[in-house]
Specification:
The chain has 16 helices and 10 strands. The protein is an alpha/beta fold.
Length: about 475
């Protein structure tokens, strides 16, 4: 069963249990606490419709639905317990606090009742679901497609150790080597090629986990390999050396697992990623609606300023190297790039008079709220570039490719600190700020970047 099917099953279970929990709470509240007859009302039916949806949103923001196959019983118990506490408090303060009661003791009874009913109704089916899932993984039906990088004796040892585990979770698809010589695993695993072909191998075989087993003299190649894997949903595990163990970098939760470090390159917690995407969508919807009059005025101004379309569409590279069409108000005369790709400059003669004004206030970027709704962009993230310039920059500095590991944004740290780049050298300077953003991503930092962007727009400091 694929990840999306498992997700659908868990969401249905959570919706059903949330509906039943609210029904039972409403019944016990009327008959036991308020000592009245149970009679359905508009409030009851509205609760049956909207309360389960609110619970599903809470679970989504909590990160419960992220990587279902990697859930385990204790983690799900922890998520359910704290989710039930948070959800019960929210329901209490939004729906129950204004109830007419005889004493404050009833308030305590209500919040304990809704927590107890919801937690019990939710945790039992969830535990049944996760127990079945774990058993299927251990039996080999839902194992993770795994690629082994390395072909030396160390790779053979780690493969044998993982393969001999009584409750293994890895389905080894094959191995790739580093130096083209070590192929000691060929008798046990399929040889898939050299590490230079890694991107194509991962894409074609839908790999879920990569284990890097390199000899000590090959560790200088580790950074390049991890760089190719960063930002994807693929789990990366490497063999630690003695320094890693002594420094506390090796964290183990399963006493039967082999000694491996999980490389976690994502600095933004799952719940913040969920909230970030929710805010992207909500803010974009509100912005598009509120800015309709401004869109109309700008559309008329662009149309009257010069011949050509109102909007400018251009292919940019987005998340994980996926191309998309960025939407902007046209600020240049038509055929501005008839001689090939060019970056704009402060006194660029290709820019129309109204275009220069729009660039000062960043008004030409406003249609990109539609890109955010489509999922191609975020409000905050590294600015998307054309493949032509990505190739040029990555030849000088390969780390630039890391910027394609997250969803690009309307504004960025580099955009705020440096502004628009007029040549490749300036793009490299701006890259430093965007790489720094990648290593420090938080919602708080996003809010700061958006605040400074608004100040730039108000002060007309764009270029």
């Amino acid at each position: 069963m694929k990840q999306r099917h498992l997700l659908s099953v868990l969401i249905f279970i959570d919706w059903l249990t949330a509906t039943l929990a609210w029904t039972m709470f409403f019944y016990f509240r009327k008959t036991i606490i308020e000592k009245k007859d149970f009679v359905t009302s508009d409030t009851f039916y509205l609760g049956v419709i909207f309360i389960p949806i609110a619970w599903l949103l809470l679970y989504y923001f909590q990160g419960t639905y992220h990587e279902i196959k990697r859930l385990y019983r204790f983690k799900l118990l922890n998520l359910t317990f704290f989710g039930s506490i948070i959800g019960s408090i929210i329901i209490f303060f939004t729906l129950l606090l204004d109830d007419q009661i005889d004493g404050y003791k009833i308030y305590y009874n209500l919040i304990v009742l809704i927590f107890t009913i919801h937690f019990l109704f939710t945790i039992i089916p969830r535990m049944i679901f996760i127990t079945i899932l774990v058993k299927r993984i251990h039996s080999g039906k839902f194992r993770f497609k795994t690629l082994l990088i390395g072909g030396s004796e160390k790779a053979v040892d780690i493969f044998n150790e993982l393969n001999d585990l009584p409750k293994g979770i890895h389905d080894f698809i094959g191995f790739v080597n580093i130096n083209g010589v070590d192929k000691l695993l060929e008798n046990q695993l399929t040889y898939l090629g050299h590490a230079n072909d890694l991107s194509a191998i991962l894409r074609n075989l839908e790999i879920e986990e990569v284990i890097i087993a390199l000899e000590s003299m090959e560790h200088n190649k580790l950074k390049a390999i991890v760089g190719k894997l960063e930002g994807s949903s693929i789990r990366i595990r490497i063999l630690p050396d003695l320094y890693d163990i002594l420094s506390g970098h090796v964290k183990m939760t399963n006493i039967f697992s082999p000694l491996l470090i999980e490389v976690n390159t994502e600095t933004m917690p799952i719940w913040q990623q969920s909230v970030k995407r929710f805010l992207d969508v909500m803010i974009s919807i509100v912005s598009i609606i509120l800015l309709i009059p401004l869109y109309l005025l700008l559309a008329i101004a662009v149309k009257l300023s010069s011949k050509g379309p109102i909007f400018f569409l251009q292919e940019r590279i987005g998340l994980n190297g996926k191309p998309f069409q960025i939407i902007k108000f046209r600020t240049m005369f038509i055929d501005a790039e008839k001689l090939g790709p060019q970056l704009s400059s402060s006194n660029d003669p290709r820019i129309t008079p109204i275009g220069r004004f729009m660039r000062k206030l960043r008004l030409d970027e406003f249609p990109q709220f539609m890109n955010v709704l489509l999922g191609d962009m975020s409000l905050v993230g590294p600015r998307p570039e054309r493949q032509y310039y990505i190739d040029k920059i990555s030849e000088i500095e390969p780390q630039y490719l890391h910027l394609t590991k997250v969803r690009p944004g309307i504004t960025s740290w580099g955009q705020v600190k440096f502004g628009y780049a007029e040549n490749v050298e300036q793009m490299l300077e701006r890259m430093k700020f965007d790489l720094l953003y990648l290593k420090n991503r938080t919602l708080a930092l996003d809010f700061k970047i958006m605040l400074y962007t608004i100040l730039i727009v108000l002060k007309a400091k764009g270029k």
